């Protein structure tokens, strides 16, 4: 009898695509999986336990070993640098991180300010560019910052580009492409290697490449 494998799933926009991927990989997930307020869902027939976490927290649960594996956006993994192994690019929830701002503007020479939900990624990016900037951490609606004069630039996720466009902003540079990844706790990977290898093989089959 195998141990139960605990999977941290991100609530929100990644959830639906991730659930679809698991189903395509042959896992039988009950209807309550898609429409429930429960934060822990046991699927006994598959020997799986799902915990439903905020996307930014998935790698934290996996790092601490309370989840064996998790599904997390590459943006979160770059920002948090958690002690987890990245096993597979799931190629879902594509978007990218970019620098944006008001059109035809230069960054302030003296103390340029950058607003973002991703302070570590932004800091590293501007350091690589040789620019010293003040990072202003926000938790959402990042596009507001340059419009109301809080910052010269933002670093944020772009998907369709609609939010930038509707707020009169333009993209200056793309930083990095983002998709969701399967991550694993290093100790879990040693103890539950057969179950995790099976999960990876089944997802790899669906994802391809
Ligand atoms: N257009 C997009 N905007 C934001 N995240 C996206 C987008 N497209 C794909 N993603 C992926 O989805 C993840 C965020 O999902 P979601 O927006 O549900 O989380 P959140 O912003 O933390 O949620 P909340 O709005 O509840 O704070 C990101 O980490 C990223 O990998
Ligand atoms: O290019 P688009 O398709 O317009 O998508 C990008 C927008 O979506 C995200 O915001 P979200 O909806 O998560 O809200 P938030 O501002 O609260 O983070 C992101 O922060 C951008 O604002």
What order do the helices and strands come in, and which of them pair?
Layout: E1 5-10, H1 13-24, E2 40-43, E3 48-53, H2 58-63, E4 69-73, H3 74-80, E5 85-89, E6 95-101, E7 113-116, H4 119-128, E8 134-137, H5 144-147, E9 153-158, H6 162-166, E10 170-178, E11 180-184, H7 186-191, H8 193-207
Parallel strand pairs: 1-3, 1-4, 7-8, 7-9
Antiparallel strand pairs: 2-3, 4-11, 5-11, 6-9, 6-10
How would you describe the overall organization of this protein?
- The protein is 31% helix and 29% strand.
- It is built from 8 helices and 11 strands.
- The chain folds into 2 domains: 5-93 and 179-207, Periplasmic binding protein-like II (D-Maltodextrin-Binding Protein, domain 2), CATH 3.40.190; 95-177, 3-Layer(aba) Sandwich (D-Maltodextrin-Binding Protein, domain 2), CATH 3.40.190.10.
- Strand 7, helix 4 (119-128) and strand 8 form a beta-alpha-beta unit.
- The longest helix is centred in the C-terminal third of the chain and has 15 residues, at 193-207.
- It starts with a strand and ends with a helix.
- The strands form 2 sheets. A 6-stranded mixed sheet has the order 2-3-1-4-11-5. The chain has a 5-stranded mixed sheet with strand order 8-7-9-6-10.
- It has helices spanning 13-24, 58-63, 74-80, 119-128, 144-147, 162-166, 186-191, 193-207; strands spanning 5-10, 40-43, 48-53, 69-73, 85-89, 95-101, 113-116, 134-137, 153-158, 170-178, 180-184.
- It is α/β, with parallel strands linked by helices.
- The mean pLDDT is 96.
- Bound molecules: adenosine-5'-triphosphate (ATP) and 1-O-pyrophosphono-5-O-phosphono-alpha-D-ribofuranose.
- Adenosine-5'-triphosphate (ATP) binds at residues 12-14, 54-56, 73, 75-76, 93, 95, 157, 159, 178, 180.
